[in-house]
């Protein structure tokens, strides 16, 4: 039946991340945090970071959204933990290539997040996958706490 | 007459295709509807034989185009039983129609401290124009509450609508809940209090007989594209006593009588509101869509949708973990069914259903205040129309069950 095609998108790893998200919650002492919404679908995500000596030493996310956006957020925290700010920003760009169907240079560094490559065949869902990464990028680009943001329309 | 469904579907080529290797089941009719060959043919014939600008020329084509454009207006008038074509304005759609009323009527009658009343089940296009008006004038915008089964709370309506209420604007049929609101009863109440009644009929006119005189509404708005006509054409019906006092919102060609250097005079109704070259082909397409719908009969169309809903509801209620929004009784509603599966996000539902060839919508349906009111970030929505069959309803239920299984238990 046609639902088997869904396996391309919803790989077991993805379902696992969405059902058992890593680092979902709140940090006691975040150095930067952001909330980002996707107004077209009502998804909302908060990302908190502890950045010490230019390194991301801790990260949490929270929010509500579809399988893809929650799994992607969980994977994102795996990918960027203990990375430098520059590395993390580079990985945001790499991930954005992956979900558009392009091959990244640092496949290994992306880890589980590579599993979201299938999203490129579901154009309506690409934004779901990139929401948390956009939030991360904004958080890293901001200098403080409590910054509010909204995903802008392309 | 019963509708010859198998035959009828041949009128819609777009429905005869496969999507993701499955026969397309198009259930997003509340967003927009498909167009029958008769409508497409009317557009083609117009461009092949009669295309010209309207109200501007003495040559033969100009005369033909004008006759057909005004002929479409007369069809709309008859279709909604408006007293005269002077009260039938062509617009871009419901959104434009409601914006015109909020701007022009709002400027005419709203003053600081006045009240405007809408409800929690409104589409953004029947919220934001009133918000803007309220902000502009220092008026107060109030919302009528809903009952647990998704109807307007009539007790609350009677409380919110007061002598201070100048305008009440309500949806006839909700694009999320599918509920049909008791417009006549509300209109009488509003008039009693001295207010003006505006109705958003975007989801009503395509699906049931609508008689604006029987409803006694002061304004009634709808869109062509939701009733098998092309996009970009819609209607604003307004009572002459208001339209005559209201100022046009756009100025330019077509809408003037005499232009002098410092001032001008407007044409009579309805043309004073229709500045510039209008959507001539769109209006003619709307006329053709009305012919098509009338040939089947609006009561027949309403019955067909209610039969589908009555057939579906028990099957849907059987699915564990499925929440349905809006009234359960088929006679209270049209073929719009919003739902959520516990633990599965509506976007995932819509993607999965699409893999089964079933087109449903997921999101806030341009009704964010209603989503908040229902305490849902979003819902999935299937909306049926005339050309949808019982077999498609079955396919919808099967796809829904398979989707739920997939996300809750994975593929076997
Ligand atoms: C109830 C309701 N009102 C208004 C609208 C707006 O219609 P349109 O986008 O055609 O202007 C819609 C359609 O989306 C609707 O469903």
UniProtKB/TrEMBL annotation, chain A:
GO MF term set: iron ion binding; iron-sulfur cluster binding
Pfam families registered for this protein in UniProt:
NifU_N (PF01592)
Q: Which SUPFAM superfamilies match?
A: SufE/NifU
Q: Name one GO biological process term.
A: iron-sulfur cluster assembly
- InterPro entries for the chain: NIF_FeS_clus_asmbl_NifU_N
Which residue numbers delimit the NIF system FeS cluster assembly NifU N-terminal domain?
10-128
Superkingdom of origin organism: Bacteria
Family label: Belongs to the NifU family.
Protein name in the entry: Nitrogen fixation protein NifU
TrEMBL record, chain B:
Q: So what EC number does this one have?
A: 2.8.1.7
| Pfam families from the UniProt entry | Aminotran_5
One biological process term from GO is: cysteine metabolic process
According to UniProt, the reaction catalysed is: (sulfur carrier)-H + L-cysteine = (sulfur carrier)-SH + L-alanine
Q: Name one GO molecular function term.
A: pyridoxal phosphate binding
The protein's matches in InterPro entries, at most eight in alphabetical order, are given as: Aminotrans_V_dom, Cys_dSase_SufS, Cysteine_dSase, PyrdxlP-dep_Trfase, PyrdxlP-dep_Trfase_major, PyrdxlP-dep_Trfase_small
Keyword annotations for this protein? Answer: Lyase, Pyridoxal phosphate, Transferase
Identify the residues that the record assigns to the Aminotransferase class V domain, covering every copy.
25-396
* Cofactor(s) listed in the protein's UniProt record: pyridoxal 5'-phosphate
Q: What CDD domains does the annotation carry?
A: SufS_like
Which family, according to the similarity comment? Belongs to the class-V pyridoxal-phosphate-dependent aminotransferase family. Csd subfamily.
Protein name (record) = cysteine desulfurase
- Species of provenance: Alkalibacterium thalassium
Q: What is the lineage of its organism?
A: Bacteria, Bacillati, Bacillota, Bacilli, Lactobacillales
């Amino acid at each position: 039946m046609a639902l088997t095609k869904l396996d391309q998108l919803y790989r077991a790893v993805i379902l696992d991340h969405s059902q058992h998200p890593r680092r979902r919650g709140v940090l006691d002492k975040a150095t930067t945090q952001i909330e980002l919404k996707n107004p077209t679908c009502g998804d909302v995500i908060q990302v908190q970071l502890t950045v010490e000596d230019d390194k991301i030493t801790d990260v949490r996310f929270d929010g509500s959204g579809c399988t893809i956006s929650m799994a992607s957020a969980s994977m994102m925290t795996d990918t960027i933990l203990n990375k430098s700010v520059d590395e993390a920003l580079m990985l945001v760009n790499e991930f954005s290539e992956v979900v558009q169907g392009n091959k990244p240079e640092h496949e290994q560094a992306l880890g589980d997040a590579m599993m979201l490559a299938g999203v490129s065949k579901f154009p309506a869902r690409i934004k779901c996958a990139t929401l948390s990464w956009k939030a991360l990028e904004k958080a890293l680009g901001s200098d403080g706490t409590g910054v509010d943001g909204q995903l802008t329309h392309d | 007459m019963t509708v010859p469904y198998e035959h009828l579907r041949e009128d819609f080529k777009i429905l005869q295709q496969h999507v993701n290797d499955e026969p397309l089941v198009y259930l997003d009719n509340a967003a927009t509807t498909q167009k029958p060959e008769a409508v497409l043919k009317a557009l083609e014939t117009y461009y092949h034989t009669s295309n010209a600008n309207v109200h501007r020329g003495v040559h033969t084509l100009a005369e033909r185009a004008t006759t057909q454009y005004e002929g479409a207006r007369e069809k709309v008038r008859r279709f909604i039983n408006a007293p005269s074509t002077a009260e039938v304005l062509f617009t871009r759609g419901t959104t434009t129609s409601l914006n015109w009323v909020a701007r022009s009527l709002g400027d005419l009658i709203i003053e600081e401290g006045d009240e405007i009343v809408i409800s929690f089940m409104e589409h953004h296009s029947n919220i934001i124009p009133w918000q803007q008006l309220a902000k502009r004038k220092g008026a107060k915008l109030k919302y009528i509450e809903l009952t647990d089964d998704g109807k307007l709370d009539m007790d609350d309506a009677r409380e919110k609508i007061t002598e201070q209420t100048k305008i009440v604007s309500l949806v006839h049929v909700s694009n999320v809940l599918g509920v049909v609101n008791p417009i006549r009863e509300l209109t009488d109440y509003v008039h009693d209090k001295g207010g003006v009644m505006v109705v958003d009929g975007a989801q009503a006119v395509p699906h049931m007989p609508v008689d604006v005189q029987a409803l006694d509404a002061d304004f009634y708005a709808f869109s062509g594209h939701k009733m098998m006509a092309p996009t970009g054409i819609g209607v604003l019906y307004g009572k002459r006593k208001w339209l005559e006092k209201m100022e046009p919102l756009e100025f330019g060609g077509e809408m003037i009588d005499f232009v002098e250097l410092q001032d001008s005079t407007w044409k009579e109704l309805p043309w004073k509101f229709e500045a510039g070259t209008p959507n001539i082909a769109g209006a003619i397409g709307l006329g053709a869509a009305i012919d098509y719908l009338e040939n089947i009969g609006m009561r027949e169309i309403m019955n067909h949708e209610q039969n589908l809903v009555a057939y579906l509801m028990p099957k849907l209620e059987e699915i564990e973990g499925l929440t349905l929004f809006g009234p359960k009784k088929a006679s209270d509603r049209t073929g719009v069914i919003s739902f959520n599966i516990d633990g599965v996000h509506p976007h995932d539902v819509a993607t999965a259903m699409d893999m089964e060839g079933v087109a449903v919508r997921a999101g806030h349906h341009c009704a964010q205040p209603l989503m908040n009111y229902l305490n849902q970030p979003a819902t999935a929505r299937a909306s049926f129309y005339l050309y949808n069959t019982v077999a498609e309803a079955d396919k919808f239920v099967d796809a829904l069950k398979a989707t739920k299984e997939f996300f809750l238990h994975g593929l076997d």
